Amino acid sequence: MKTIDYLLKNSKLPGARADLGLLYSFAQKATAAEIDQCLSFACEDLFNSPEEFVVMCGIVGFCVYNGSQIATTIESIRKYASHKSWRIKEAVAIGIQEIAATSMGETITELSKWITGNSFEKRAVVAALCEPKLLKNKEDLIKLFEILTQITLTFEGYNGKLSEAQTALRKALGYGWSVVIAALPSEGKVAFERLADRDSKHIRWILKENLKKNRLRVMDEDWVKKINNTLAK
After folding, report:
1. Three-class SS of residue 88?
2. Which of 21, 83, 170, 208 is a good FRET partner for 4, with 20 to 30 A between their CA atoms?
3. Backbone φ, ψ for residue 40 (5° rounding)
4. What is the pLDDT, as a whole number, of residue 156?
């Protein structure tokens, strides 16, 4: 338990930010036994506590340790994507990114199964995959545009008040598109434009939020103005 005690004492929680440097350091070196010990702290009421940090370490460590078994690892952490703690949700995204860093294509394939899941699971897909360091391969990016389109269209026809999970998903989509478009502008702009005539106020919100991002203005300011004009009609 020495390692776990160290994590508890040095988590920087309660506080504004957990020690992510310590999290990554632990995840790269953790043994299976240490990871299991971390995950044993998992429960619903973990908000802003050292125990919350320990579970985060367990999730990311689990992904690193079992990264070669992509399908079973991703399925094993799926339950944490809907956890009450936002930090636990973030740990899921971080863990997936650790797996995707060495096998983005297979990670996308496995995460595509989450598209039929709940809004928090969909949010995890967006948060995990819309990460610049992962967006290198054109084939992967094209698949990612398809996934983002499917997830965005889940808001079509729904104009009521959003749940907490739907709000979190919409927020993730509100920046995720811009990240992926910037990595592959030609195909990305086409995929994005196909959504511009949708009548859903939530889809229009997602598009407008992405168009505010400086990365898109730098990429093609005229195109940003054109899509904004389309959305203003």
Report:
1. helix
2. 83
3. -70, -15
4. 94
